[in-house]
Design goal:
It holds the Pfam family XdhC_C. The protein is an alpha/beta fold. Helices cover 34% and strands 24% of the residues. It has a 6-stranded parallel sheet with strand order 12-11-10-13-14-15, sandwiched between helices. A hairpin with a 4-residue loop joins strand 8 and strand 9.
Length: 326
């Protein structure tokens, strides 16, 4: 899940608590090229205010115009955009030539809606993984435990239901501010990560500016030890300062983070591994979890190139691809 998904649900909750009916739209399936993957969300109010996206803009414009005209008053509507055989969505031809199937749920501001959105919100914050199930005829919704890896959206034609996986929103914890950190933050935000930067040094925080990024004025190891990592968290240490980087690695291996990496040459990484075994008490299994040297071997030289290699490697692991498959 992306950080944008968390923003969508937080806005939906805020509007519902204010007594507003909200329309939660979910991309169910894509055929051909599409800018958003199945499971992506958009939430809107009756006056057209919205957060999130479904496509490059054409689908959103059509949906919001029809919403403001009073359409979508049923609990559930399914539209296929870009499909000439589907009259409801055929008037929009996607520039990419693809087809987009969208689930539209009308959620009144009542107690069941608030409870449902609060469960989704807690899941995105890392409590647990769930399947959100919606009956396409009645709009009745409930949750199931997620049985394991699989597609984000599962359609059950016989039962007339759809199941949508909800997992913690992708998070990147950057241990220490450096020139590489600056670019990592930018790439991670563009990729939909929630980004948290930790650095206790006031002099480097003073010159760091990144809108939308949470900055913690503490040692990264302290922040990590506080329970900040869930299974969709990546931790990267990019300062070349063992006092920051090594302590961050020692704490990060105790968490379920899916990616833990630290910057340095092969020689530096070998020395760090020995230091972490001897002084940090890390086992061989702990050391094996660490990506060091961090990132893909792209021959990177500049801070921007190194950051690109780091984020590319994080996406590779996130998508379950081995280095040999690249």
């Amino acid at each position: 899940m992306q950080h944008l998904d968390l923003q969508v649900i937080e806005r939906a909750l805020a509007w519902a608590r204010e007594g507003e009916t909200v329309w939660l739209c979910t991309v169910l399936a894509t055929f051909g090229s599409s800018p958003r993957e199945p499971g992506s969300w958009l939430v809107a109010r009756g006056d057209g205010r919205h957060v999130g996206s479904l496509s490059g803009g054409c689908v959103e414009e059509d949906f919001l115009a029809r919403l403001c005209d009073g359409e979508f008053d049923r609990p559930v509507t399914v539209l296929r955009y870009g499909d000439p055989d589907a009259p409801q969505g055929a008037r929009v031809a996607l520039p990419c030539g693809g087809v987009l199937e969208v689930l539209i749920e009308r959620l009144p501001p009542d107690s069941p809606t608030l409870v449902h959105l609060e469960v989704v919100h807690a899941t995105l914050l890392g409590r647990r993984r769930l399947m959100r199930c919606v009956d396409l005829a009645s709009g009745v919704r409930h949750f199931l435990d997620d049985p394991g890896p699989g597609p984000r959206v599962v359609r059950d034609g016989e039962r007339g239901t759809v199941q949508m996986r909800i997992a913690p929103a992708a998070r990147l914890i950057v241990a220490g501010i450096s020139p590489v950190s600056q670019y990592c933050v930018q790439f991670a935000q563009a990729l939909g990560f929630e980004v948290i930067v930790c650095d206790p040094r006031e002099e480097v925080r003073r010159d760091f500016a990144a809108p939308g990024v949470e900055v913690q004025a503490v040692l990264p190891s302290q922040f990590i030890a506080s329970g900040a990592c869930h299974a969709a968290t990546a931790v990267v240490a990019l300062t070349h300062d063992p006092r920051i980087d090594d302590l961050a690695m020692i704490e990060a291996v105790r968490t379920p983070a899916f990616y833990i990496g630290v910057m340095g040459s092969r020689r530096t990484s070998e020395a760090r591994a020995e230091r972490l075994r001897r002084s940090g008490g890390l086992s061989e299994a702990d050391i094996a979890r660490l990506h060091m040297p961090i990132g893909l071997d792209l021959g990177s030289k500049t801070p921007a190139e190194i950051a690109l290699a780091v984020m590319a490697d994080i996406v590779r692991v996130q998508r379950g691809r081995s280095r040999d498959a690249l």
